[in-house]
Predict the structure.
Amino acid sequence: MAALSSGHLATDLAQGSLPALLPYLVDKFDLTYTLAAALVLAATFSSSVIQPAFGLWSDARGALWLLPAGVAIAGVGMGAAAIAPDYWVAAICVLAAGVGVAAYHPEGSKFASYVSGARRASGMAFFSVGGNVGFALGPILAAALILAFGLEGAALLALPGLVVALGLALVLPYLADFAPPPDLSGESGEARAERRGLTMLLLVVGLRSVAHMGLFTFIPLWEESQGHSAAYGTWVLGGFLIAGAVGTLAGGRLADRYGRRPVLRWSFVVATPLILVYVLVGGAVGIAAVILAGAAVIGTFGVSLVMSQEYMPGRVGMASGLSIGLAIGLGGVAAVTLGAVADAVDLRTAVLATALGPGLALLVSMFLPPAPSRRRVEPAPATL
């Protein structure tokens, strides 16, 4: 599990480093804001929209090799973008990095499920924390490398991915032993799928991403608008993300003990008022509220991932790709939409609007059906 979580960290570190590269790429290529936003769109599109395709491939043929390959491509692609000679080469590199992210997640989450055994929510939470930490470390590492060596120094972002990819390649035979027998991943599994539940869960995930990616985008801008420094806003965002990592671990344990749906619903119950307190009250109370909101909003990422796999037990890779890809894709769309709200109305309204996501997600989650029953499967050897 540690290897899988490390791979998740490395892929999301590459993806999370892009915001730190953007200002320097804008200066280097004299970009408009539209062209700069297109780089973010390229990363978001390639890392989210095609994830279900990789999940389908994984379910149909088995694709353990995607673990090291995805990590390596994500790191090398983002590192290469820093030294690209022109904008279009940089865009292709960012697009390739997103493909690496998309390739890793379905296969990684599928085997995290297999390795977790009976404590699936706790195991998936540990896997998800790797991504949370990587996403938080990405801009910090990129900024440190640029400060030390200039923009070209950010090419070293490729190193974490290459090192982790090598480690994953060495443990592939060990991971293969956890795959269930093929006869339990075919038609019999599909017959037990709860498609209505999966559709509703994906809607919940999309609504949750309104708060997740909206706050990720606007916390620094909101703090700056309140008279604080940019560095202060970055620290607040760091607290939001770190609390999300802690909340993910706690959410997994609680879900194993009390059930997936109750934990998911209660996270939404507390998230909406916490976001409102952050904007309307402000000060130290507001900072504490938004940090707790990070634990509530991000903390159910692993829980919803397990639920998607349980709703679609015969297509675990596909379910994972849909769940993770939708969170990334709709999160990007939500951030752009909220940006338009901020331009048309004001920033305060946009940040307040992020609270709508958990509120609506709570309403939808009340109608989530129980997952189909699963019989215990002992690990069996599988080919690479």
